[in-house]
């Protein structure tokens, strides 16, 4: 393998500034939306005392989950010693930090008292998985930052493997921690499943890699650098495996739930009677996020870059639908307090809860996503993280194009 | 920081105590305890609890709810929030048996668990349980993340969705924080009983009992011993302080 030369993108084209402009506008809109909600109080949102976590949490959790997965490429190179992934490891690590920051920003801005963040940062209840997550997230950023430094600084290169190991284990714990947020909600039927944490890990692989592929293709295309088939095809195969695994875990999740009689109610709700949640489950989670991408990746279009890009977009959309079903659908389904009884009250006990996200909430969510992307766009301009070329000759000399 | 937390808690409880001295309806003595001097912390010598006799609670009655609203000032203060966003510290629930059609009615509020899930999940420790078993939210350190609401099996907590005015000094409330039944801690600390129980008894329904679960001679303990008392979602093993008869 030839030496990899990292080079900042020039970033003075019209297209680059247009990209920054558009992302900046979305971020600004998200910021305004957050200010509007904080100023008025949450009554201007669709969130209620019945559905307490809404659209912002869907985006935040998606981004946090994806952040850990975006580190895949770096992990594969340093932990599993696959050289071909090494050139893109710094991009992968940066993307991962940016996605995490985007997600956390959303979470913080949706708090009832965001100005008390300092309280959350200084007073910990060590029994709370939320508090643990704050430590995990901060630690993740610190470890990955060191890892990036070791990778980019020649003198430190020899240690980058160890930092890579640390980051790999840390991210697994981090995603487990995120998944466990739901695991601790034993009172809610939809979350009462041990498979939740591993399912989140595999989802993180798929979502993170999908975002990585898009960022990588955009960065190389738009800067006019060469990106060889070897790299793209390798990523594509990996994405296919992860998407398949998500589908498999989904199947196991529902089969185990169907096995336990006490979960029949919530299963019928998700799979058959849940209205929007059923639709999102089948069309979003399964078809758009799973079946279609698999068809695109492994069907006759499998080598077409546009098809691979489209499949990645679909994985992201399907992922958002998945998190929506888990977060909102899980709350919409009534708490089962009195088995065998019809329950009625002034506080909407017994019925399925309604939730319709408002524009502001959605903007905050999308704004966080845009914030993550704008950070990536700036990083590749100011730092040397992108290999000058990822042509097959450089990335993988032994690769032979298949006929 | 720990010290700060304690300070905050004390301030919160101090405010609560300041407005106490509220009268307990004469003749209502459902418990026998010594009032704890104000400078002493709550201890685990007591465990405050409540017993609700569902057979005496009628479907149309909302006296306990009204009393709680008056006592703590919720119910009419939120003007912008919609019905699903407005706070409810206590609510009446109507149960109809799917097989027999038998109808029951009961008040539902924070169940003051011995191992409260809200306290476990709260990242800052704003959700807390006093030594005497009362579960509270310290509004000074609540960041409004609503994780406790996700964790509560009884949907006992409410988030405040709009700015509030004219609060009662013993019941501080605020936009962006979470609140719930305090078991009328400001009354209990001054030898009183919760407003709902007081009202239920004063109106002659006698469906609610309040007292010390650790004191074998308290009326609530005697009744529990004689008639038993069920927990809602007993399967979760939370050992609730609020028990129901005839569930
Ligand atoms: S909303 Fe407040 S009391 Fe509830 S878990 Fe969050 S910080 Fe704790």
What are the salient characteristics of this protein?
heterodimer; A: 403 residues; mainly alpha; 14 helices; 68% helix; B: 247 residues; Alpha-Beta Plaits; three-stranded mixed β-sheet; globular; disordered N terminus; binds iron/sulfur cluster
CATH level-1 class of the largest domain in chain B: Alpha Beta
Strand share of the residues of chain A?
under 5%
End-to-end separation of chain B: 44 Å
Instruction: Assign the structural class of chain B, choosing from mainly alpha, mainly beta, alpha/beta, alpha+beta, or little secondary structure.
Output: alpha+beta
Judging from the principal axes of the Cα atoms, what is the shape of chain A?
Answer: globular
- The topology string of helices and strands of chain A comes to HHHHHHHHHHHHEHH
The CATH superfamily of chain A is: Formate dehydrogenase/DMSO reductase domain
Order of helices and strands of chain B, N to C? HEHEEHEEHEEHHEHE
Please give the largest β-sheet of chain A: none
Helical segment count of chain A: 14
Rg for CA atoms of chain A: 22 Å
Helix content of chain A: 55-70%
Instruction: Quote the distance from N terminus to C terminus of chain A.
Output: 24 Å
Q: List how many beta strands of chain B DSSP finds.
A: 9
Strand order of the largest sheet of chain B: 8-1-9
Would you count the extended β strands of chain A for me?
A: 1
């Amino acid at each position: 393998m030839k030496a990899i030369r990292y080079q900042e993108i020039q970033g003075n084209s019209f297209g680059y500034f247009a990209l920054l402009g558009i992302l900046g506008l979305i971020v600004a809109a998200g910021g305004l939306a957050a200010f509007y909600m904080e100023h008025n109080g949450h009554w201007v949102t669709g969130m209620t005392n019945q559905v307490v976590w809404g659209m912002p949490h869907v985006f935040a959790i998606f981004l946090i989950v994806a952040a850990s997965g975006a580190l895949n490429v770096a992990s594969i190179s340093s932990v599993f010693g696959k050289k071909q992934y090494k050139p893109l490891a710094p991009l992968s690590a940066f993307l991962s930090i940016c996605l995490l920051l985007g997600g956390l920003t959303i979470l913080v801005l949706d708090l009832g008292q965001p100005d008390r963040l300092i309280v959350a940062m200084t007073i910990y209840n060590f029994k709370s998985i939320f508090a643990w997550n704050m430590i995990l997230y901060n630690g993740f950023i610190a470890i990955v930052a060191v890892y990036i430094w070791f990778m980019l600084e020649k003198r430190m290169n020899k240690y980058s493997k160890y930092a890579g190991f640390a980051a790999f284990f840390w991210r697994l714990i981090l995603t487990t921690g995120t998944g466990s947020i739901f695991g601790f909600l034993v009172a809610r039927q939809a979350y009462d499943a041990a498979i939740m944490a591993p399912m989140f890990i595999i989802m993180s692989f798929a979502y993170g890699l999908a975002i990585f592929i898009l960022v990588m293709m955009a960065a190389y295309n738009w800067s006019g650098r060469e990106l060889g088939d070897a790299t793209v095809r390798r990523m594509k195969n990996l994405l296919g495996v992860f998407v398949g695994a998500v589908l498999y875990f989904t199947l196991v999740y529902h089969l185990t739930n169907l096995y336990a009689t006490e979960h029949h109610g919530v299963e019928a709700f998700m799979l058959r009677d849940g209205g929007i949640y059923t639709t999102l489950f089948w069309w979003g989670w399964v078809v758009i996020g799973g079946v279609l991408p698999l068809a695109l990746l492994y069907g006759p279009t499998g080598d077409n870059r546009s098809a691979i890009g489209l499949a990645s977009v679909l994985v992201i959309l399907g992922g958002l639908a998945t998190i929506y079903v888990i977060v909102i659908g899980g709350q919409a389904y009534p708490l089962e307090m009195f088995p065998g009884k019809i329950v009625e009250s002034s506080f909407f006990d017994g019925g399925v809860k309604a939730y319709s996200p408002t524009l502001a909430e959605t903007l905050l969510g999308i704004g966080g996503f845009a914030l993550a992307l704008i950070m990536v766009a700036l990083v590749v301009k100011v730092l040397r993280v992108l290999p000058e070329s990822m042509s097959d000759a450089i990335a993988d000399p032994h690769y032979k194009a298949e006929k | 920081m720990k010290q700060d937390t304690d300070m905050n808690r004390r301030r919160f409880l101090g405010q609560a105590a300041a407005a106490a001295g509220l009268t307990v309806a004469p003749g209502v003595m459902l418990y026998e305890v010594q009032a704890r001097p104000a400078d002493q912390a709550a201890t685990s010598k007591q465990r405050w609890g409540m017993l609700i006799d569902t057979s005496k609670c009628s479907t149309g009655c909302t006296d306990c709810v009204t009393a709680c609203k008056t006592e703590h000032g919720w119910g009419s203060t939120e003007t912008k929030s919609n019905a699903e966003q407005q706070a409810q510290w206590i609510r009446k629930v109507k149960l109809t048996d799917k097989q027999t059609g038998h109808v029951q009615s009961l008040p539902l509020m924070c169940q003051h668990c011995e191992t409260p899930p809200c306290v476990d999940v709260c990242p800052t420790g704003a959700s807390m349980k006093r030594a005497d078993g009362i579960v509270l939210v310290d509004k000074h350190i609540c960041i409004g993340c609503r994780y406790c609401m996700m964790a509560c099996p009884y949907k006992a907590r409410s988030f405040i969705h709009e700015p509030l005015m004219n609060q009662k000094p013993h019941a501080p409330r605020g936009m962006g924080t979470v609140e719930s039944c305090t078991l009328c801690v400001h009354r209990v600390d001054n030898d009183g009983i919760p407003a709902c129980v007081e009202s239920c008894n004063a109106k002659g329904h006698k469906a609610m009992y309040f007292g010390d679960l650790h004191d074998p001679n308290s009326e609530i303990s005697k009744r529990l011993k004689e008639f038993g008392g069920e927990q809602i979602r007993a399967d979760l093993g939370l050992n609730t302080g609020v028990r129901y008869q005839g569930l």
